[in-house]
Amino acid sequence: FQLAQQVADLFDQYQVYRADWLDDWAHGRDVLRDPHGQPLPLPATQRWQSRLWRALLHDVGTAQRDSHRAAVHRAFLDRAAALEARPSGLPRRIVVFGISSLPQQTLEALTALARVCQVFLLVTNPCRHYWADIIEDRELLKAERHRQPAKPGAPATPAYQDLHLHANPLLAAWGKQGRDYIRLLDGFDAPERYRTRFAALGRDIDLFSGPGRDTMLHQVQQAILDLEPLPTDPAQRRSWQPGDESLRFHVAHNPQREVEILHDELLLPTMGTA
Questions:
Q1: Going residue by residue through the chain (274 aa), what tens digit of pLDDT does each one get?
Q2: How far apart are CA 96 and CA 77, in angstroms?
Q3: pTM for this predicted structure
Q4: Coil, strand or helix: which one is 93?
Q5: Which DSSP letter does residue 150 get?
Q6: Helices (DSSP H) in 100-186: which residue ranges?
Q7: Which helix (H) or strand (E) holds 103?
């Protein structure tokens, strides 16, 4: 029963995040598609998944074969592509705000709706430059196009051994989810279509604001924003100034205590001004 639960949860996630795999498997293609959509052979040790998916579709019968979420999503995209006008129940504008990551299915749905209504997707980005290549397996996610400009002076394709010279180590270590999400957005966003409209209104589609370098925390944030690597020469590194408590390190004996410390640190400034 536990195995059945895990397999069901796995296929449930595939319906949201890897619907293209399920479509290939349903049509007898034992492949996995990479981020560029190129099919790769399914390893022999994993082919039980494609066989099990086909057996499941056969078991539910023809009437229920296309009732899973991946098939419903495909039917939605096909219906949206055939729309010639905005349906009465669809708002004129859709605003997506405050979401740190969305699956590809949702982005495909928003892109389809953008044909008949206005879609605003507001995304938080810690870096003003293109930074999707600062990953270990950078060749897997190497983009054919990207909306952010490369950092001036950075090579078009930095050598793997030189990545630390062109990237911020904190951004590379902590930004995987955001990095993958922004890389995914590059495949859907076309800023050249609407940048001029915002410019005509005196607005910009990229809103970055530098925090400055007056405190240690602001220095770290500015370095991430500008994609600055850690200086190799210790003499070039900024030293800590007495009285600067913008960054603090706490030693906790377990994760619960870490949360408690964070809770206290967030509440104390508020309580002090009450």
A1: 999 999 999 999 999 888 889 989 999 999 998 767 789 999 999 999 999 999 999 999 888 888 888 889 989 999 999 998 999 889 999 999 988 888 888 999 999 999 999 999 999 888 888 877 665 434 333 444 455 565 565 555 555 445 445 567 778 777 777 888 888 888 888 888 888 888 888 888 888 988 988 888 998 899 889 888 877 677 777 788 888 888 888 899 999 999 999 999 888 766 555 4
A2: 19
A3: 0.70
A4: strand
A5: P
A6: 104-113, 169-174, 176-186
A7: none
Q: What letters, b where the CB count within 10 A reaches 16 and e where it falls short, cover 234-249?
A: eeeeeeeeeeeeeeee
Q: In which residue are the tokens 């002090």 written?
A: 272
Q: Closest Cα to residue 243, out of 264, 212, 272, 216?
A: 216
Phi, psi angles (nearest 5°) of residue 120 = -110, 125
Instruction: For residue 154, give the 3-state DSSP assignment.
Output: coil
Say which amino acid occupies 218: H
Q: Tell me what pLDDT residue 135 has.
A: 53
Q: Which two tokens stand for residue 184?
A: 């995914």
Alpha-carbon distances, residue 31 vs 2, 43, 47, 82 (angstroms): 27, 8, 9, 30
**DSSP structure class, residue 191:** G
Nearest C-alpha neighbor of 191 from the set 253, 130, 232: 130
For residue 72, the tally of other CB atoms under 10 A from its CB is: 13
Nearest to 17 by CA among 148, 131, 139, 177: 177
